[in-house]
Amino acid sequence: MEDMDKPRIRVKVERKEGEPTAAFKGASWAALIIGASAYAIGLFNASMELNEKGYYFAVLVFGLYAAVSLQKAVRDRDEGIPVTSIYYGISWFALIVAISLMGIGLYNAGSIILSEKGFFGMAFVLTLFAAITVQKNVRDTQRARDIEE
């Protein structure tokens, strides 16, 4: 009982200016791992042909690359780092194509039921968003540490 009467001492973790909190970094990584794992487990358990599974896996990998690439290009431009217009345009185009391929694939998928289509769509969006957030956190952390040095 005596321990409850004592004041608690909190140790403040030093964070650099502009660095995301550990909780935000952890939540971003958790969302990425959960989204990608759920998508992969869903594909593994889906009753579709192997070539269909390959299509959906390739679309996820393409979408992840396109989303991170676009996030980097947008951030570079915002910070005054040179980004060619062609790369910037290709990054947007690639993300739009990846999302379109996912949507078209799910719309035309006759071998899976509507609830599975929703599951794959949501896992796809969660994973893309989480990948963008993780990449942003990595960059913010690196920048905060570079400023300190």
Automatic annotation (TrEMBL):
Membrane-spanning ranges: 21-42, 54-74, 86-107, 119-135
Domain of life: Bacteria
Positions of the YiaAB two helix domain: 24-76, 87-140
Name this polypeptide is given: YiaAB two helix domain-containing protein
Pfam families: YiaAB (PF05360)
Cross-referenced InterPro entries: YiaA-like, YiaAB
Originating organism: Evansella alkalicola
PANTHER family (alphabetical): INNER MEMBRANE PROTEIN YIAA, INNER MEMBRANE PROTEIN YIAA-RELATED
Keyword annotations: Membrane, Transmembrane, Transmembrane helix
